[in-house]
TrEMBL record:
Descriptive protein name: CBS domain-containing protein
Naturally occurring in which organism (per UniProt): Halorubrum miltondacostae
Lineage top rank: taxon: Archaea
Keywords, comma-separated and alphabetical: CBS domain
Pfam families found in the cross-reference section: CBS
CBS domain residues: 75-124
Amino acid sequence: MDLDDRTRVADVMSTPLETIGGDAPIRNAARRMRDENISALVVTTGGGCIVTQSDVVAAVAEGRDPEATTVRDVMTQDVETVTPDLMLEEVAAMMTMYGVKHLPVVDGDYVGMMSSTDIAEHIS
């Protein structure tokens, strides 16, 4: 197979990128994810951070108040990123290796999100 025929991140990533501030209550994050039908948001005040549905569910399961608990309190930090030119197979391998379902796409700045759902939808 010619490398030019293989799928790149830019062809599959979710855009536009959805973001949220670190000081927002997790209830706002949950609503945004529900309303946009997505499962992660890039945290604009975190520097390499995202908040996922799993982060929010874990906080609620622990009994944390969704209005008083902020995104910064529960966000996933130091998240690996990918570039738009990476091949889909490479991203799938990274997700497996790191045990994650979301990788922000960076091209100088954040430009999209790559999720395991994006990959599954593309190959099905």
